[in-house]
Amino acid sequence: MLVSRPHLRQQAEALRAFSTPDMSLYYYYLNIGGNRKDVTAIYQLAEILYNYQAVQFHDIVYDESENALAVYMTVYVRPWFALYRENKFVFFTLIELEDRVNEDCKVVKLIKVQRDYLDRSPTFSIIPFAGWIYNSIWLRVIVGHMIVLISRAFRACVCIPS
After folding, report:
1. How many other C-beta atoms are found inside a 10 Å radius of the C-beta of residue 132?
2. What InterPro entries does its record include (predicted)?
């Protein structure tokens, strides 16, 4: 739904064309089950808040036995509340498909369930300055090692066996 930076009406049309009426969306912060109109509302609100810029696909895999599509991608956004600074969300999406017969009597695959798994929390990623720290792998490694050292020191002081 993000590939060509669609307008809100185009998003709704794409969802009508490519998803089942009882589509479900499972996202980092929310679950919307069984109603394409609700999923459309979420997509449109996300467009308004996050100002989608582009999508870069890293890998797409179709599993015929499960009738599912796995997509690994990066979505670039410029949210107004992050002062229009470009941010990227790296995530993996699992799309469960359902075969339906269209008006031309052809079998088409429609989106039944979309499950998004984000690499990092979108909220922390877009906060000015804090997002830069949060997204820094180098800083995350240092913080992780600091926590390990503190934990080991505490364990040694309290005589907890390792």
Report:
1. 13
2. NTF2_SigF
